[in-house]
Design a protein that fits this description.
The chain has 400 residues and is of the alpha+beta class. The chain contains nine helices and 19 strands. It is 28% helix and 27% strand. A five-stranded mixed beta sheet has the order 1-2-3-6-5, covered by helices on one side. Strands 8-9-11-10 form a four-stranded mixed beta sheet, with helices on one face. Strands 12-17-19-18 form a four-stranded mixed beta sheet. Strand 15 and strand 16 form a beta hairpin. Helix 8 runs parallel beside helix 9. The chain is globular.
């Protein structure tokens, strides 16, 4: 359910349903920190716990499942958090259905992590994007595993949307880099990614209220361990749809060979539309992993991905739906000043993220629905998010 068809008051009630009533005991603030039930939104809880310094206890993790407890990719995520922090205390019960997490200091430095192949590197990278600016030392992380899969945002997508978004919040400079060293698609993996990020003492507030018109579309069509012609077929089919709207389209083909091509065959497409005001809207698709379903034709994949991009442009806003929670987190942690961002309809993941931000930082957003004027070309309903930053300062940043 989105906030598209709701008034401001009901939209607020939808995102913050318990406001004005006593919170239930499930996630009330007890002497041992915040308590949650279930495995949903696992990353959100641990990332916000690490940033706020509040302990968190997660109970009943798949307790009624045939295979109860934490999955391998979640255990790998906990190990990654342990590598970038110092003094973190983690307790997991024998069945893996309960986790206690007491965060330490964000240390950073040079780390290397073998990501579990059940989820893509994007699953781990999204959390690092949130944590990296607040570490003691600039982060240099080498992540190995699956770079592209149909579930998580790919490294290409994060490189072309999340990195420019970070720059708008003042996290920029030579030290900010995201590079695909080796590409590896699901299920085998074998990819490698380098992420470097500088540290910042504070995050500057932003006013992202004017999305602007689309000025150009860029993309990457990649193929590994299949014919290089696959990427060209994807490009042709995507252009057949997008050329009707805008002439400035350039889709690069990226065919990696040998040791750099991972362990499994696959192909896919990432498309990014840039607006006149410097906003980026993205869409992507990748082929079905080998042995997990009917294969997809590159022509169909190109056309469907182009349609997904048009849908994302219709939703609009200054931040695309994949990066809503990253933008809202930086707004929450910004200096004690007003930040505004115009977003498309909020995704269910973002709505839950707003509830968690309220639990950990006691920050609530003012949510206003904005209907476009009679002009149909302005796309769907938008949501204007406004908050006053928590004034979060990176006290562990080493003074040179």
């Amino acid at each position: 359910m989105t906030c598209r068809s709701l008034s401001y008051s009901s939209c607020l009630k939808h995102v913050y349903p318990h406001e004005g009533t006593l919170r239930n005991n499930n996630n009330s603030m007890a002497s041992h920190g915040l308590i949650y039930d279930g495995c949903n939104f696992f990353r959100q809880r641990l990332v916000l716990s690490t940033l706020s310094g509040k302990r968190v206890k997660i109970r009943n993790i798949r307790s009624k499942d045939d295979n109860p407890g934490l999955r391998d990719f979640e255990a790998s995520f906990i190990r990654l958090l342990d590598k970038v922090t110092n003094g973190t205390r983690i307790e997991i019960n024998q069945t893996g259905t309960m986790l206690f997490y007491q965060p330490g200091l964000l240390y950073g430095g040079t780390i290397e992590h073998e990501c579990n192949t059940q989820r893509a590197i994007g699953f781990y990278l999204e959390a690092l994007l949130m944590l990296a600016p607040f570490m003691k030392n600039p982060l240099r992380a080498t992540l190995k595993g699956v770079t592209n899969d149909p579930v998580d945002p790919s490294v290409d997508l994060l490189k072309s949307t999340a990195i420019p978004l970070m720059k708008q919040f003042g996290i920029d400079g030579e030290g900010l880099e995201l590079k695909v060293v080796k590409r590896g698609v699901a299920p085998g993996g074998g990819g490698e990614v380098l992420f470097r990020c500088p540290v910042r003492r504070t995050i500057r507030p932003v006013q992202l209220t004017d999305p602007g018109k689309i000025k150009r579309i860029r993309g990457i069509a990649y193929s590994v361990r299949v014919s290089p012609q696959m990427a060209n077929r994807i490009v042709d089919s995507a252009r057949s749809i997008l050329n009707k709207f805008i002439p400035d389209i350039y889709i690069y083909t990226d065919h990696m060979k040998g040791a750099n091509s991972g362990k499994s065959p696959g192909f896919g497409l990432t498309l990014v539309a840039e607006t006149l005001t410097g906003s980026f809207l993205s869409a992507e698709m990748s082929s079905i992993p080998q042995g997990q379903g009917d294969p997809v034709l590159p022509e169909d994949l190109g056309r469907n991905c182009a349609k997904l991009l048009l849908e994302e442009i219709y939703r609009g806003g200054c931040v695309d739906s994949a990066n809503q929670s990253l933008a809202l987190l930086y707004m929450t942690l910004g200096q004690q000043d007003v930040s505004k961002a115009l977003l498309g309809p909020l995704s269910p993941y973002t709505i839950e993220f707003l509830r968690h931000v309220r639990d950990f930082f006691q920050i609530m957003f003012k949510i206003e629905t904005r209907k476009p004027l009679d002009d149909k070309r302005k796309g769907g309903d938008k949501v204007l998010m406004t908050c006053v930053g928590a004034g979060y300062a990176n006290i562990s940043k080493s003074i040179k």
